[in-house]
Each structure stands twice: as structure tokens, then as C-alpha cells.
Request: fold
Amino acid sequence: MKNIVYFLIVLVPFFTSCGSDSGKIPSDVVNNPVSASGEKNNDLPRMSFDKMEHDFGKIIQGEKVTYNFKFKNSGNSDLLISQVHSSCGCTVPDYPHEPIKPGETGLIKVTFDSAGRTGIQNKAVTIVSNCQPNQTILKIKGKVIKP
Reply:
């Protein structure tokens, strides 16, 4: 009886953890830029930003400030952003979850909450996409001053 219980304890998590594909990019949209033969793939999406760093200047402590990083898919296939994350919990990114067609534009909205912060702040926002390279880093900075 003990063996059956141990067997079930081991197998139940195995079978229940294998069924979810949420949040994953389908493999048919991920392109390899160079094949094994050395041929380059020119059909990749490309993120082109107006600017990749923003300086808020002086920020009064407790203030929330936002900047929209504008980008364009200057590549030749749909751009898919799988995730965007920041280097700190005080910085919250928002991004388009639908594919960006070639030639279309989009925004990465970054909000910084200066509550509890003082002095010079430098934060990074990492974008993971189906571009090559697959990570792009945006930066925000500012000097938080007490009111």
C-alpha cells in the first residue's frame, strides 16, 4: 500500500505539469538567422526604436512617470514579443501582445514609481522577441529628489 502511495505522489505532478503551453511562442514563427549551411535568413523581424534610453531628469519622490518607447518592425516578417521585464519592481513595462506586421509601429510603455527612492536611478527593461538577437534592452534614468 505504501508503495502505491509513493508511486502516485511521484507520477501525479509529472502528468499534470506537462499539459500547459500558455505563454509560449509557436515554433513555426521562430526563425534561425543562419542555417547549418551558412545561408543567412533575411526574412526576420527587426525592432527599430526612435530612442533606446530616456532621461526623466528630476523626479519628485513619490511621483509616477511614464515614457513610451516607439518602435517599428523594419524586418520582413511578423514581430512577436514574448515578454518584457524590468530590472526592478518599481518599473512596470506594458507592451503589445499581438503580432506587429512588417512596417507597423508599436509602443513599449514604461512607468517608473519613485516612491521610497532617492538619488540617481538607472533602470533597464528587457524585451524578449523573435528578432535576432532575441533580447533588446531599453533604459530609463532620472534623479529622484525629496519634495
